[in-house]
Design a protein that fits this description.
The radius of gyration is 37 Å and the shape is elongated. The longest helix has 16 residues. The protein is of the alpha/beta class and 537 residues long. It has 20 helices and 23 strands. Helix 1 links the parallel strand 1 and strand 2. Helix 11 runs antiparallel to helix 12 and helix 18 packs across helix 20. Among the domains are: 181 residues, inorganic pyrophosphatase (n-terminal core); 111 residues, Diaminopimelate Epimerase, Chain A, domain 1, CATH 3.10.310.
Length: 537
């Protein structure tokens, strides 16, 4: 069954990543084993510290939710080698009625060509005119004729070729074979057999007949083969010993990859109008074939959103996915669904507070590891309970999770917020916890860095401003804000690019040189975004 992805927001923080892991663990523990945690961006140093502390790996990185070729119910017919006989390929095409073409692959699995019923028919019709068998391996001939080699010359023969001739009565001398490059079919006709062996034809095929021992041991270079088929059927079937590598189409092939988006594939299918197309994986190996009808009802990816409900913060391609649930603690935003879904949105300081409560509601005790992760996430998102978003419920749930995990919240908090930021580049710092918003016709971005030494971070103010101005110009933002939230000072150094009047009116302060200190401001979602929303209406 296809997985149900649980994802937080882009540029995920600790609360976002742990919430995805915790909710997937909850659902899987209850028997819904298809849930899989995902991560939409780089794991921050803080989050990695938490993951390392409890010995777990980061969730799988997810780049999009677009409907891809891998989401289609494409056909997976046998993928044949170019050395396979036409007879074998035709049998498969007859068995696979829904398949119009078969993929032909090289030894390493890469695409060699495509073989359709039309290719086989065209090749066979051309042979009717020529009646000449091009060089084919002896093994192929023995396979299609169910034949057996009878003499020593045959054991030394590797390929069969020549003009195909069915031996006629001796009184029709002008219709008999005359050249060495001939494949002769005959029955119980000792004179014809002798003539062929004396002429050293390439191959003599005995159809439903036996050969005298003196003729079988006669000195000749002719390969003698016996077959249970009559001459008419054997003469037709020998042409089906041709390797399909000679018959299949190898040029101007249009192929798709598993990660290709379905809407782009549709455009190519309408343009080229082939009956089917080969599908390749990441290593360029053939994995199946795609026909037009596969595009009619693609399976949409399924996703549960945690710690966000805003399209700009979610995974690219979300509009093509099926949203099953939303679990969040932020304001309601702009995500729309085609069907009613389960939404749990509560005014607490951390999404993990909600999910820990869901463990409790379902009578399921989280493991020590998961409890430790959730306690860390609650500490991180509430800034060690100093954020105005923090509630008594956050504190109580963090304490409960800490008891289960047998850890100290105080020690855990110090470990989380003591990770060094000095070695990180300005760009990494700015975009580690970065979110974009659209409020009443205004576009803006707000980044937050939680630290214990904001004056030291302000030494890099000009670097931040240069990067923020470039971002604002590139994305046509009205404002870009950086929150340097200091845990010890219990406030935020606000660095911004945009209107001074907007900052002054929103926060009732007088900014200076694109900077202002906001005491007791610790939360982006509860103390910055609401003030701008109120200002802009």
């Amino acid at each position: 069954m296809d997985p149900i992805y649980v994802t937080g927001h882009r540029n995920p923080d600790t609360d976002s990543i742990v919430a995805a892991m915790a909710y997937a663990a909850l659902r899987n523990a209850l028997g819904d084993r298809e849930y899989e945690a995902g991560c939409l961006g780089h794991v921050s140093d803080e989050t990695q510290t938490v993951l390392d502390r409890f010995g777990v790996k980061a969730p799988k990185r997810i780049t999009s939710m677009y409907t891809q070729v891998r989401d289609l119910d494409y056909d997976v017919p046998p993928i044949l080698s170019a050395a396979v006989t036409e007879d074998r390929a035709w049998s498969i095409l007859q068995e696979e009625k829904s398949v119009t073409s078969l993929p032909v692959a090289n030894e390493d699995g890469s695409l060699y060509g495509m073989l359709s019923r039309e290719d086989v028919a065209s090749y066979n019709m051309a042979l009717v005119d020529t009646g000449v068998l091009q060089k084919v391996p002896l093994f192929n001939v023995l396979s299609v004729l169910e034949g057996k080699v009878l003499n020593d010359a045959g054991e030394n023969t590797d390929v069969i070729y020549g003009t195909v001739s069915i031996a006629l009565p001796q009184n029709r001398e002008n219709l008999l074979f005359h050249e060495k490059d001939t494949v002769v079919f005959c029955g119980n006709q000792p004179d014809m057999i002798r003539r062929a062996l004396e002429l050293n034809v390439n191959c003599l095929i005995l159809c439903q007949a036996e050969i005298d021992e003196s003729l079988r041991t006669m000195e000749t270079t002719t390969c003698i083969i016996s077959t249970p088929y009559d001459a008419y059927r054997a003469a037709r079937r020998i042409f089906q010993s041709t390797p399909i590598g000679r018959i299949c189409r190898t040029k101007d092939l249009v192929c798709f990859h598993l990660d290709d988006r379905v809407d782009e594939v549709r455009e190519q299918v309408l343009k080229h109008r082939a009956s089917c197309y080969p599908i390749l994986d990441e290593q360029e190996r053939v994995v199946g074939i795609l026909s037009r009808y596969h595009l009619l009802r693609p399976r949409r990816k399924r996703v549960v959103l945690v710690d966000h409900n805003e399209a700009a913060q979610s995974v690219p391609g979300l509009e093509e996915a099926e949203i099953l649930e939303i679990i969040d603690h932020h304001r309601l935003a702009d995500i729309q669904t085609t069907n009613p879904i389960y939404v749990r949105n509560e005014p607490v300081g951390s999404t993990n507070t909600i999910i820990a409560g869901m463990f409790q509601d379902r009578g399921l005790m989280p493991s020590e590891t998961m409890a430790g992760l959730m306690a860390s996430a609650i500490l991180s998102d509430t800034v060690m309970f100093k954020s105005p978003t923090c509630t008594d419920r956050d504190r109580r749930m963090a304490e409960r999770m800490a008891r289960i995990a047998n850890v100290s919240l105080e020690e855990l908090g110090r470990e989380i917020f003591s990770s060094s930021l000095d070695s990180k580049s300005t760009q990494d710092l700015l975009f580690a916890d970065y979110k974009e918003f659209h409020i009443a016709g205004h576009d803006l971005a707000v980044s937050q860095i939680t630290c214990v030494d904001s004056p030291k971070m302000l030494d890099r103010k000009q670097e931040f401003l240069d990067l923020m101005r470039a971002r604002a110009e590139e994305n046509h933002f009205d404002m870009v804000i950086l929150m340097l939230t200091d845990v010890l000072m219990e406030g935020t150094q606000l660095v911004y690019v945009g209107s001074d009047d907007t900052i002054q009116q929103a926060f009732s302060v007088t900014p200076r040189d694109n900077t202002v200190f906001l005491p007791r401001v610790m939360s982006r979602k509860k103390q910055v975004i609401p003030m701008l929303s109120a200002l802009w209406g």
